[in-house]
Amino acid sequence: MAPKSATPRATGTSRAAAKAARREQLLSVAKNLYAQHGFHGVRLDDLGKGAGISAPAVYRHFESKEAVLEELLVGISDYLNSGGDAIITRHDNDAAASALIELIDFHVAFAMSEPELIRIQDRDLAALPEASRRTVRRLQRSYVSRWAEVVARANPGWSLDAATVRVHAVFGMINSTPYQARRSSAEVVGVELRAAAQAALGIG
User: Fold this and answer.
1) Alpha helices in the chain (DSSP H)
2) Half-sphere exposure for 123 (CA within 13 Å, toward CB)
3) 175 Cβ neighbours under 8 A, 6+ residues apart
4) DSSP helix, strand, coil percent of the chain (3-state; round to 5)
5) Which domains does the chain have, with CATH numbers?
6) At the top level of its lineage, which domain of life is listed (predicted)?
7) How far apart are CA 178 and CA 29, in angstroms?
8) What is the pLDDT along the chain (204 residues), one digit of tens a residue?
């Protein structure tokens, strides 16, 4: 026979899982609505309706629609920065070009799978509270800086400033293309983005 505490513990675990799933659902709904209508064009009621719950129920997960925006934008900035760091760490003893190829693959995969987040960041970053906006900017600077260091190592004749300019240019190209080339197949877009990025960063 199971201990008496097993059922309450299991119930508590189930509730926590359900709450986490609902939170993720709200983030997904917000991502799509913010991308379509802009942060200021979406109400908390809209988020609740999209998730099949009432507006007051949304407050069980987020204190405001600004808090939802914070989680989306700070979260994706942290994901990119942490992912980039992990790739670079894995390639510490390899040729820089190997790390750069994987970094390009990583960012292209992100841009093609999360175009809504890119649109939200481009348009609605200013809607974040100042502290969160600073956090996003800090993470972005770190991400660019880490890329630029790898690019400079892969191209010994380039200065760090030159490498940084190239990285910004490549990010602009990768981040904008999934929206601009929606009539092309995802496979073609991915292949061409990777090839163009490698050429721009001196390893093509």
Assistant:
1) 6-37, 44-51, 55-58, 65-90, 96-113, 115-124, 130-154, 160-180, 186-200
2) 16
3) 111, 118, 122
4) 80, 0, 20
5) 13-62 (1.10.10.60), 65-201 (1.10.357.10)
6) Bacteria
7) 20
8) 444 444 445 566 888 888 889 899 999 999 999 999 999 999 999 999 999 998 889 988 999 999 999 999 999 999 999 999 999 999 977 789 999 999 999 999 999 999 999 999 999 999 999 999 999 999 999 999 999 999 999 999 999 999 999 999 999 999 988 666 667 788 899 999 999 999 999 997
- Which of these, 107, 153, 127, lies nearest to 65 by C-alpha position? 127
Q: Please give the single-letter amino acid code of residue 2.
A: A
Q: How far apart are CA 50 and CA 30, in angstroms?
A: 8
Categorise residue 43: left if φ over 0, alpha if ψ from -120 to 50, beta otherwise.
beta
Q: Which letter does DSSP use for residue 169 in this model?
A: H
Closest to 150 measured CA to CA, from 83, 199, 102, 204: 102
Q: Give me the half-sphere count of Cα atoms (radius 13 Å) on the Cβ side of residue 112.
A: 19
Sequence-distant (≥ 6) Cβ neighbours of residue 110 within 8 angstroms: 79, 80
Residue-level length of the chain: 204
Q: pTM value?
A: 0.87
Residue 43 tokens read as: 């109400």
Q: Where are the alpha helices (DSSP H) in 91-129?
A: 96-113, 115-124
